[in-house]
Design goal:
The complex is a heterodimer of chains A (321) and B (180).
Chain A: H1 4-25, H2 33-41, H3 60-75, H4 80-91, H5 107-134, H6 145-174, H7 191-201, H8 206-219, H9 224-238, H10 243-263, H11 268-280, H12 285-297, H13 302-319
Helix pairs in contact in A: 2-3, 2-4, 3-4, 5-6, 7-8, 8-9, 9-10, 9-11, 10-11, 11-12, 11-13, 12-13
Chain B: H1 2-24, E1 31-32, E2 46-48, E3 54-56, E4 65-70, H2 75-92, E5 99-104, H3 109-119, E6 125-126, H4 132-137, E7 144-148, E8 154-159, H5 166-178
Parallel strand pairs in B: 4-5, 5-6
Antiparallel strand pairs in B: 1-8, 2-3, 4-7, 7-8
The chains are: A mainly alpha (321), B alpha/beta (180).
């Protein structure tokens, strides 16, 4: 029989061994950026070869993804899971070495458990039937067909519930859940997204477009596209109002476009719009021509060029000595 | 036995379906395929051309943009080149012509210059250092072709070599839906 003192010693040894085991087995996480890169790249499969992670693959696509992972780790903005999610978002779920626990991928986790439960249930039923058949000495109470159907239905429901629940549990413990996953593909609602929405709204819904550009400028006051297109839309809308309002809009538009050009002297759209506004609303052909020429030199996109081509000819004609 | 026949038939159907899926999913090329980027704003792309001119995709809003991911040693890239030349020539005559860009994938500037000097094609060629643009679009193999609309949304992804007239047809469909 153990004495009290020995019991204390046993308790101390058990606790110490437990703590040692916990400390040795605990995942402290990556220590350096390179550790993080290695950890992440071991979770991603090479998209152009079989059975290799991008950590070991020498394929060109793997090298590009490794470089992207290194860039994102270096930026320090995304977590490991978010970096993996970004890559999976671009290349598809098949590049995940650990399948996701969502959508169709979750079947990988759920099905084995369901099958195991079904097999266990089937075996149990078979053994039960054999036992009943061999028990000839005691009279067996035979169940009615309706009772058998009910038992079968309950058995099936229980099997499916236990299997699915077990599968979900396994998936939760082991499956990859990625933070950027959404039903639409997980593209973030970024400045680029708001700018694209503003652009889409622009011609038909000027008010919404101006609001969206203003939203961008709240978080990024130097966003050249938002500054330029908000100013342009404000001027276009003001043209239907009285002289005083037009003059006010003209002043604010010229200021905003001037600021956009100051921030990015290579942005052609701001120069083209300034040229148009200075001529159409300010009547200054010489300044307008200067802006229009600078815009054309910088190869504006097709839609802006469409606005400026006719004006350039008009200005040339007006300024002809 | 009736139940045994049903069981055998079920297994046969499942195996046939499995084989059909394998056959269908086996890498059809030159066709539009899905991507989570479709219908989304195009990623921010800033790089330089092989002539060292700056390129910023955000500055091309207002134009239809086509990115063709390319490598001068890739056989399907060489095979589709005449189609791209015809497409570029057709678009250059339009007031709302598409801007075609080659995105160089894992290739040297000189090799690309030599290829285009020999095979024609005077559209800009964009550098993709470290494959950053390819990863952003999820391009694992070249050639791949992407279409971005004038509002900056990704509209189409074509995997593999584009056959003659495919780009013209797809752009025409997209222009019709845009009303441009």
């Amino acid at each position: 029989m153990l004495t009290r003192r020995r019991l204390v010693w046993v308790a101390i040894i058990v606790v110490a061994a437990g703590l040692l085991a916990f400390g040795a087995g605990r995942d402290t996480g990556p220590l350096t950026q390179q550790d993080r890169i290695d950890t992440i790249t071991k979770r991603i499969a090479c998209p152009t070869c079989d059975g290799e992670s991008i950590y070991v693959s020498r394929a060109s696509a793997s090298q590009s993804i490794r470089a992207e992972v290194a860039r994102q780790v270096g930026d320090g903005v995304r977590t490991d899971d978010e970096v993996v999610a970004y890559i999976a978002d671009r290349f598809g779920g098949e590049v995940l070495l650990l399948p996701r626990a969502t959508g169709v991928d979750a079947l990988i986790w759920v099905l084995p458990v369901v099958l195991t439960v079904v097999l266990v249930m089937a075996l149990w039923l078979a053994f039960r039937r054999w036992r009943l058949a061999s028990a000839t000495t005691t009279p067996v109470q035979v169940a009615s067909p309706s009772q058998r159907r009910r038992s079968l239905a309950i058995g099936v429901v229980l099997t499916v519930v236990v299997g699915v629940a077990g599968g979900v549990l396994v998936a939760r413990q082991a499956g990859q859940r990625l933070p950027l996953e959404t039903s639409t593909g997980g593209i973030e609602d970024s400045t680029a997204s708001i700018l694209a929405q503003a652009r889409l709204a622009g011609p038909s819904d000027v008010k919404t477009a101006i609001e969206l550009y203003s939203r961008v400028l709240e978080t990024d006051p130097d966003n050249v596209e938002a500054l330029t297109y908000r100013a342009w839309l404000v001027m276009l809308s003001a043209r239907q109002f009285d002289e005083a309002l037009r003059a006010q809009a003209f002043a604010s538009t010229v200021t905003a476009l001037g600021r956009a050009i100051q921030i990015d002297p290579e942005y052609p759209d701001a120069m083209c719009f300034l040229g148009i506004v200075v001529y159409r609303d300010g009547g200054d052909a010489a300044s307008a021509k200067e802006f229009v020429d600078r815009c054309i030199e910088r190869d504006p996109p097709v839609q802006v060029r469409g606005l400026i081509d006719a004006l350039a000819k008009e200005l040339d004609a007006e300024l002809k000595p | 036995m009736k139940s045994a026949k049903i069981g055998t038939l079920s297994v046969a159907v499942v195996v046939a379906a499995f084989i059909a899926v394998l056959l269908v999913s086996d890498g059809e090329t030159g066709v539009a395929v899905s991507s989570p980027l479709l219908g989304q704003p195009a990623p921010a792309i800033q790089t330089t051309t092989i002539d060292d001119a700056p390129f910023d995709l955000a500055r091309r809003k207002g134009s239809w943009v086509v990115f063709n991911f390319f490598n001068s040693t890739c056989v399907p890239c060489i095979a589709e080149h005449p189609s791209l030349i015809r497409f570029a020539e057709g678009e250059s005559g339009r007031p709302d012509g598409v801007e075609l860009y080659t995105v160089i994938n894992d290739d040297a500037d000189d090799a690309v210059r030599n290829f285009f000097a020999t095979n024609d094609g005077d559209w800009p060629k964009l550098r993709d250092n470290d494959g950053a643009i390819a990863v952003t679009f999820g391009v694992a193999k070249v050639p791949e072709t992407w279409i971005i609309d004038p509002n900056g949304f990704v509209r189409l992804r074509i995997l593999g070599a584009v056959a003659d007239g495919v780009l013209e047809e797809q752009i025409a469909k997209l222009r019709a839906t845009e009303g441009s």
